[in-house]
Amino acid sequence: MKKQNIKIILSAALCLLAVHASAETLRPNIVLIMCDDLGYGDVQCLNPENGKIKTPHVDKLADQGMIFTDAHSGSAVCTPTRYGLLTGRYSWRTRLQSGVATGFKPCLIAPDRLTVAGLLKKQGYATGIIGKWHLDFQYQDPKTGEILPKKGRAPIGATIPDGPVHRGFDTFHGIHHAGHMDTIIENDKVIERLDEIHNLPRLTEKSVAFIKARAKSPEQPFFLYVPLGSPHAPIVPTKEWQGKSGLNAHADFVMQTDATVGVIMDALEENGFADNTLFIFTSDNGTSRGANIRELREQGHYVSAHYRGSKADLWEGGHRVPFVVRWPGKVQPDSRCDQLITLVDFFATVSEITGEQALDMGEDSVSFLPALSGQPIVSTRKGVIHHSVSGHFGYRQGKWKLLLARGSGGWSAPTERGANADAPPAQLYDMKRDPSEQNNLYLTHPEVAERLLADLTSDVERGRSTDGPYAKNDVAEIRIWKGKRSDGKKKRSK
Q1: Which contacts qualify for 53-59: CB closer than 8 Å, 24 or more apart?
Q2: Is 0.90 surpassed by the pTM of this model?
Q3: What pLDDT, on a 0 to 100 scale, did the predictor assign at position 26?
Q4: What architecture is the 27-372 domain classified under in CATH?
C-alpha cells in the first residue's frame, strides 16, 4: 500500500512537471530586430525582380517562416514607429506631432505607460534592448543630479533618469539616435565614445553576448529587442563590407546588416533557443534619400520595390516595411500573409501570446497572432492610420487608402509646397488595382473619401482606434488636416 502511494505521488509530481514544461513552451523567447531605414525593396526575397542587394540571411529567415506582405510601420520616420511598437499606441497621440526626437528631453513614453518590455517582465521575462532608443531621455550630472542642457554630446559618466531601464527593460546597451551614434550608453549611464563605424559590430557582439548569458538560465524566457542603427546614415559599412554590393555604400551597409541577422540567428541555434523563439525581423520605415535612391535606381535597384515614395512619405514606400516571422512549430515555413498589420500590433500580439492583460493600454493595437497560424485576424479596428514626417495623416481601410495631403506628405516630390495649386486637397487610391498609387480617385469617389475621413476622425478623437473605453490623447488638439480642404476650411480635432 505504501509503495502504491509513493507511485501515485511520483506520478502526480511527473504530471505537474509536464504541465509546467508545457506552460513554459507557451512563453516563447521573443527576439525582434528592427532595422533603421531599410526599405521594403531592400530585401531580396521581397523584391526579386527589382532588388539587386543580396540578403541571404533574411531570405533564409523567410524560408523558415512567414512573410507579411502588407505590414506597415506606425509612421514614416524613426521615433513615432518606436513609440508605437513598444506601447501599442500611435505616437501622434503624444506631444510629438511631427518629426523625430533629438534627445535631452523627458522620455516620450510616460512613466505610467506600460511597454511591451514591462508587460513581459510581469510574466517573468528577462528583457533587454541593444541598439537605438530614439524616444528621448534626459542626462544628469552624476555629482549634482542637475539635468544637463542640450549642448553637444552628453559627457561620459552622465546618468539617465528616464531611459529604457526605467521603461520595462532590465538592460540597455546602445545609443539614443543616429546623430549621437558615437555616444555609448549602458543601462543608465554614458560609458564611452565609439567611432560610428564600430557601432554595428558592437551591437552584433552585444546581442550574441545577451543570448549566451540567457543560456545560463534557460528556464527563464527572454525578450531581446534589437533596434539597429543601420542602414541609417551615417552610412558606415566596415572595411570588410565596403564595395561588397557593387552598387553603393547603402547597399553595402544593408548587406552588413543582413549578416548581423545571420549572426543572431546562429547564436540562438548554438545556445539551444531557436526552437522556442518567436523571431521577428522588420524596419522602422522606408529607405532614406541619404541612400542615394536615384543612383540605386539607375543600377536597377528599387528601394521600395514597385511602391511609390520612400522614408518620410505617406505613400507606401514611406511606411510599408519588411516583416518576417519565424516561430518553429507555430508558423509554417515558406508561408506568406497578405493581411494588413502595423508594428503597433506587436503590443497586443505579445499580450495574447503570454496571456498578460494590458489593462486598457495598447489603445491602437490588434493581435496578429491568428495570422501566424494562417487564420484571419479578428479586429475591432476599422482601419490603420498612417503618418508622415510633417504630421500629415493617411487612412487605410480594406483596399482603400486616403491621404490628407496634396503630395507625398514627406520628402519625395511633389512635396506639399511643390504640389500644383489646382491639385485635389487629398488623395484616394484603390490599393488592390493601383498599388503604385498613380490614379487619384479623390474627386471621383467622394463618398468613400468622406467615409474614411469620418472613421479617421473618430479614431483620433476617441483616443483609441480599437473598441474600448474612451481614452485621452496627451495633447488637447490634433490637427487632422494640415492644409486646407476644398471648402477652404481647416479641419481640426479636439
Answers
A1: 53/245, 53/247, 53/251, 53/254, 53/255, 53/301, 54/245, 54/255, 54/258, 55/254, 55/255, 55/258, 56/258, 56/262, 57/258, 57/259, 57/261, 57/262, 57/265, 58/258, 58/261, 58/281, 58/322, 58/324
A2: yes
A3: 65
A4: 3-Layer(aba) Sandwich (3.40)
